[in-house]
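Journal club prep, notes for RB
We'll compare a predicted complex against what the paper describes. Inputs for the iron/sulfur cluster case:
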Amino acid sequence: MNVYDSARMADVLRPLGYGPVDRAEDADMIILNTCHIRERAAEKVFSELGRLRLIREARQAEGRDTLLAVAGCVAQAEGEEILARAPYVDLILGPQTYHRLPEMVARVARAGRTIIDTDFPVETKFDFLPEDAAPQTEGNLTAFLTIQEGCDKFCSFCVVPYTRGAETSRPVPSIMTEASRLVESGVREITLLGQNVNAFHGLDGEKTVTLAGLAERLGTIPGLQRIRYTTSHPRDMDQSLIDAHRDNPLLMPFLHLPVQSGSDRILKAMNRNHTADEYRDIIRDLRKVRPDIALSSDFIVGHPGESDDDFEATLQLIRDVTFASAYSFKYSPRPGTPAAGQAFQVDEDVKDKRLAVLQALLREQQDAFNASLLGTTQDILVTGTGRKTGQLNGRSPYLQPVHFEGDPALIGKIVKVQITKQFTNSLGGIQSKETAAF
Ligand code: SF4
């Protein structure tokens, strides 16, 4: 979501004459868009600010000014701390106020001191963002689109409800307009974003539309070929969304569905509001309607109170479900969250050991999944040329990077590729004779 937000910040600043540059040394304004989800990410902000300060001083010596801003969730949660530790920062703004950036830039020039704006404004930023620009990635063929923000779930370990605020969904017409513009500009694959994306309940006039309904409406946009969504919560995986994986051909057979732990005791302590078996049931139902669906997940090891048995239950869930990929982390206490103050914090060396065991199992499953595709023919969205001459890059339905030899005229098309090689984080193939590009 920060990638999306950064692009939207660039959109609101463009009318003021700002445009992107490659090096901080050349920038009249530097915005650090920050993440607060893990301790390390938040700490990195302060070391990065120290580095940027030196760049600013060097520019100052040459008579050039640099506006320094911190945006995103660290700014939201630790605005005062930033002010104390890095008083040279000009602007501190949260994720819900970046549509006010032009006004803040004007104010900072007048005020001559740090401006902080970490409100949760009544107005939604989406009503104030320019409509004529859109964030795009991978050769302008894939794009993120935020449809929902915030969260009301209050998992014990998570800062999101405090930094992004309460769960809100964008109205459907505004999403459709942005999606249509993206597709008109060449985008073929859209990833719908939200902290709790499958809790989406956007209004279309008087009617409330679910994520399944939104995906169906998006399917009517000519030229859009793929839809993904992330990140989901198991509690919001309703039957209409499960059925959409059978009925909506644009929905890719790949789902990121975080479970965090396989132990009911820890799931309860995490306030996840579901059991490990309920998670297994959702996966079973998904595989029933879409047998080729592959799963990805998030895992936290070492949540306060996690015993060896709890950890073993997580390993068992992984063995039962089998994942094509996953993100796994050691628990780190985030200030202000319920878990941070709990007794029975797990020792760091225990967390290290558990993480290594868990990641080895997940790696094994990822390799096995990639190996299972060898010899199969996959639809690959061609996103650009590769590093080697004559090579094209693309992405599979399962988000794997795939390299193969082909005509650059295929960029932007979906072609059939027979998978012949497996690398650590990518696949290789040859364009299939039955290529029916569209
Ligand atoms: S559902 Fe996700 S975003 Fe919401 S509190 Fe839990 S982990 Fe955080």
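Talking point for the session: The radius of gyration is 23 Å.
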